[in-house]
Amino acid sequence: MTSQIIPVDPFDFIIFGGTGDLSERKLLPSLYHRQRDHQFSEPTRIIGTSRSKMSDDEFRAFARKAIEQHVAPEYIDKAELDEFLARISYVAADAVSGEGFEELKAAIGDSTRIRAFYLAVAPSLFGDISRNLKAYDLITPASRIVLEKPLGRDLDSARELNDLVGRNFRESQIFRIDHYLGKETVQNLMALRFANALYEPLWNSAHIDHVQITVAETVGLEDRVTYYDKAGALRDMVQNHLLQLLCLVAMEAPSSMDADAVRDEKLKVLRALKRINGNEAPRHTVRGQYRAGASAGGPVKGYIEELGKDSGTETFVAIRAEIENWRWANVPFYLRTGKRLATRVSEIVIEFKPIPHSIFGDGAGPIFANQLVIRLQPDEGVKQFIMIKDPGPGGMRLRQIPLDMSFAQSFKGRAPDAYERLIMDVVRGNQTLFMRRDEVEAAWSWIDPIQQAWEGSRQDVQGYTAGTWGPSASIALIERDGRTWHEST
Ligand code: BG6
Question: Where NADP(+) is bound, by residue (predicted)?
Fold first, then answer.
């Protein structure tokens, strides 16, 4: 990708959970890439913190290993890596007791530089950390706090978390990450809609038949047994990533890219989502759990065997959602996501209405409705499916072809990880790609009744074989309406 690097102001980046998985896999590698692209100004520092006692050098060794493991070798530049490691230091601190916060304060010093406190820790620590940051007088006007999901497990717990953090930080200082919003293609969705005059006149119930949003994964539980079994796919994926995608597809044009202008529009969509209550849940939702099968080229265990105990947690969800406003009246949004599915693909399909009348005879073949397929990952790109005449003699035979724009082919180079963009936005203080408190709460308000309906009625979790597209009920969910899931390959 051809990119333009705009340096950010000097900053101190303090990672709570510095020795954890997120720091290792995403934060340190992303920061390294920004260093390599010369986006930092001096002096910029990175301070790791966690409960473990560790010297600066030991943490630097941890960071070096993280980068060597998670950055492709062709991007590892020895001089840049050394320079990067020289920015790093470490302070042991206990989030609950406050032990070590004095040392943290001494390490940060009393500069007025931008300070980003990144909480890559369990949400149960958000309250304690923000309280101690305040108690030890570490919060300056130029400070921001970054929160990682899960932001609650229902509306009440989300409110509680927001209250705890909100006692110590203003909303304009709180950056709630949904890493999907940092993906290039997700931002491109906004460009597609609002930088082109072509689609907007058609972007409504008069011309769009329905929308499909699929986020399919081939991975299973990975190492997240405890978290995942308590969460399930509805909380883990739908409450955040899928609803954020739905918002970007469905929102009105904001007046600008200003954070609140965009978030106001997303909030309206979330509030317009039709509640799915107990009676409707069986008809509008499907929950599934993978059984043993084959995925990513080999045999894999079922969820229960992987977990090592019985569980009713869903690893697959499909939902028929409706947005109650003028633009989207009677346009269903079909959402589906799952682990151990047939292939890894995230895409949004906008299916337009069929033509009102065909002038071609039977010999022309079927005329398919136009589809706009926005592929978020992998093989990022946009395809507009249209009907054309099959070239050559043989009468008027019609054929569907894609106008294909593959981003990978159009833009050469490395596609930055979502975290790179998001971390730089934290430093810039730009909240456009972060969730506001009311958005998170509105999303939970829609999710809670579904979760309650499932728990109340014990709506069956349907088994599906690993490596397939989920339970057959998910196919029935869309086919009952005379539609089919787009075949993603
Ligand atoms: C995370 C979920 O938020 O997103 C994971 O907790 C999921 O369960 C992941 O695997 C998917 O992210 P990506 O970027 O790989 O699509």
Answer: 51, 149
